[in-house]
Amino acid sequence: MRRWLAHGQAVRSLAFAPDGRSLLSAGGDARLRAWSVAGDLLWDVGLTPEFRTTAVLAFSPDGGLLAVGEDGGVRLRDPATGAEIRHLAAWGPARDETSEGASAVTFRPDGSLLVALDGDEHTPSDVYRFAPPSWRRETLLANCSGDSEGGIHATALTPDGRLLAEIDGGGLKVWDLGRRVVVLSCGPATPAVAGRGALAFSRCGRFLGFAGTLNPTFFAFARVCVLEVGRLAGEVGPATPGFRAVPGAGEADWRPEGDVYFIGETESVAFGAGALFTGDRHGVVIAHDPPTGAARAAWDWGGGAMWRLAVSPDGCLAAAGTRTGEVILWDVE
Prior knowledge:
Layout: E1 2-5, E2 11-16, E3 22-27, E4 31-36, E5 41-46, E6 56-59, E7 66-70, E8 73-77, E9 84-88, E10 102-107, E11 113-117, E12 127-131, E13 136-141, E14 152-157, E15 163-168, E16 171-176, E17 181-186, E18 190-191, E19 199-201, E20 207-213, E21 223-228, E22 244-245, E23 255-257, E24 260-262, E25 266-272, E26 275-280, E27 284-288, E28 295-300, E29 306-311, E30 317-322, E31 326-331
Antiparallel strand pairs: 1-31, 2-3, 3-4, 4-5, 6-7, 7-8, 8-9, 10-11, 11-12, 12-13, 14-15, 15-16, 16-17, 18-20, 19-20, 20-21, 21-22, 23-24, 25-26, 26-27, 27-28, 29-30, 30-31
């Protein structure tokens, strides 16, 4: 296990490079940094002046580009140096410098980039596609939060860019971006306090992990649910998957309510190594079996809330970013 202070404020985003030899972190101190898996600093760049909350990260399929979604738009960077290659203005005519920015980014296998944008009661939440070599913007989905109050709270895209999951004032929705239709809707929903780290798709796109509550009466507790959504992108009509309860560190944390269960104080979720990883506000990370929720392994790192989780592409390493700015890296095996 390796542990170091990566940022002067909370770690807001984590991503492994495609070769698994380096790790990127973005912090609340408006710095984007690359680290070797030994914890050595490789490069350090500042985020945009418009940066206020977080940055979202994605690597192109060949590893040659890094997309950094920020409050001020999306920037393509050189993964080897952090140098900016191109700036993609992510907002449309209804947006201005006070609007929220990118909340999720992913590269499709064809090399095009998908960007999901935050919104609020005054600004629509959109999904755009940028395709090389011109990188011109195409609107895939306009105002996906509809008339819901409060805009988008958390979003996630499948690695192939086929599905978008978003939590807004109306609840949790899963969109098929090709057909531009909602294939799953349930709510109301509130993500865990870490927000954007509380929603994640598995790499195969079959499972969606969610840390939060589906009942706004119980804000003090975060519930972890796994939805089996793989069928929803197929030719058959929308399915109605059930929620699967994910067990916590002890049975005392379980608070049954219908077919879903509370688990105390989960902050973040991530998929990798064929497992769902959950991190809580006490420094505990658990790897679960997605179909059943059974715990495969657990690590107690202490140090406070685990706001971000990431797993290396080969599934050998996992990393956690804490509320206090630390990065913790360990061998999953």
